[in-house]
């Protein structure tokens, strides 16, 4: 039987001295994928506390070179960076289409990309000034059957929120007219007038309405580029700006649920580009986010933006 393309590319790369192998090539899974562990140098000392050498697990799919190579650091402490999967800790590199198609060249180019990723992580350059600002990865391993959350936030609504940093209040949410999810239609706070997003009556079913709570933090980030993933971390973030998070959660739990869920919306001002001043208010965009952002019987969910024209029609 002929040698797999991925195995031959790996052998040639090792022969060329391009891979500092820690453990050799071995099969993984049932689809014919191959994996190996190797070391990469890291700029040291560095502000992120990364070691001078990191061990990385590489996985080459059976479809290689028609697919990419996946890299996951062995050390679980190497996590929470931009351009990194929040669950698996896999590195997010350039699109597969930007790498050479020749198997050896492709594998070597991926290893160079992984080396560049660690250099950027160590020096705080994974997101450079002028890059599009990247929301943290809010996904969680838990599979949550929560309806979609629609929201209308943009630079237009930023002015209404800018003075509300460090505050919390109550939010009314109504069901989408076709039951596709829920959308916030009124934010209130004891010290000021309510904020009412412009959501058309054609978009909403006001007969299905619930109350939840909202919190506006200065930042969604708690470590590196990671958002809170536990209630303890959320409590710490809120306490730093004088908010006791537990009454917020308790009030949400005391309200009527929607399909078994109670809602706490958490947002923060964000820039459009790295280095810019905040110009928008955003929160978790993904249907699977971490527990602090939604009080449920043990689950959470995120949301999707509704464009102004869609919400108003």
Q: Share of helix among residues?
A: 10-25%
Distance between the termini: 62 Å
Please trace the helix and strand order, writing H or E for each element: HEEEEHEHEEEEEEHHEEEH
Averaged pLDDT: 83
The radius of gyration computed from the alpha-carbon positions, rounded to a whole number of angstroms, is 23 Å
Structural class: alpha+beta
Low-confidence stretches: 284-313
Number of helices: 6
Instruction: Write down the overall geometry.
Output: elongated
Count the E strands: 14
Strand content: 25-35%
Explain this structure to me?
- By secondary structure, the protein is of the alpha+beta class.
- It folds into 2 domains: 5-123, Ubiquitin Conjugating Enzyme (Roll); 148-312.
- 20% of the residues lie in helices and 27% in strands.
- The protein has 6 helices and 14 strands.
- It has helices spanning 5-15, 103-123, 155-162, 231-239, 245-254, 308-312, and strands spanning 20-28, 33-41, 53-60, 70-73, 148-151, 168-176, 181-189, 192-195, 204-216, 221-223, 226-227, 264-270, 280-282, 304-305.
- Strands 5, 6, 7, 8, 9, 12, 13 and 14 form an 8-stranded mixed sheet that branches. It has a 4-stranded antiparallel sheet with strand order 1-2-3-4.
- Helix 1 packs across helix 2 (103-123).
- The protein is elongated and about 70 Å long.
- The relative contact order is 0.14.
- The model is unreliable at 284-313 (pLDDT under 50).
């Amino acid at each position: 039987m002929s040698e797999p393309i991925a195995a031959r590319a790996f052998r040639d790369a090792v022969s060329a001295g391009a891979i500092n192998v820690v453990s050799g090539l071995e099969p993984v899974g049932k689809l014919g994928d191959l994996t190996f562990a190797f070391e990469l140098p890291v700029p040291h000392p560095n502000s992120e506390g990364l070691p001078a050498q990191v061990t990385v697990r590489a996985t080459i799919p059976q479809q290689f070179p028609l697919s990419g190579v996946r890299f996951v650091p062995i050390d679980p402490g190497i996590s929470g960076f931009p351009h990194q999967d929040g669950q698996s800790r896999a590195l997010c590199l350039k699109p597969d289409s930007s790498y050479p198609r020749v198997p050896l060249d492709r594998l070597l180019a991926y290893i160079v990309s992984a080396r560049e990723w660690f250099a950027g992580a160590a020096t705080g350059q994974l997101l450079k000034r002028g890059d599009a600002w990247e929301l943290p990865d809010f996904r969680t391993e838990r599979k949550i059957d929560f309806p979609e959350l629609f929201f209308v936030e943009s630079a237009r609504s930023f002015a209404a929120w800018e003075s509300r940093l460090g505050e919390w209040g109550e939010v009314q949410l109504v069901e989408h007219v076709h039951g596709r999810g829920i959308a916030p239609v009124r934010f209130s706070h004891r010290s000021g007038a309510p904020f009412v997003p412009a959501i058309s009556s054609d978009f909403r079913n006001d007969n299905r309405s619930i109350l939840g709570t909202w919190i506006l933090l200065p930042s969604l980030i708690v470590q590196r580029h990671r958002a809170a993933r536990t209630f303890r971390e959320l409590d710490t973030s809120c306490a730093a700006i004088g908010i006791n998070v537990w009454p917020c959660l308790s009030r949400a739990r005391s309200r009527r649920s929607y399909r078994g869920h109670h809602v706490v919306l958490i947002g923060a001002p964000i820039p459009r580009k790295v280095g810019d001043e905040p110009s928008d208010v955003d929160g978790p965009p993904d249907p699977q986010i971490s527990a602090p952002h939604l009080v449920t019987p043990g689950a959470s969910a995120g949301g999707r933006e509704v464009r102004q024209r869609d919400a108003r029609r």
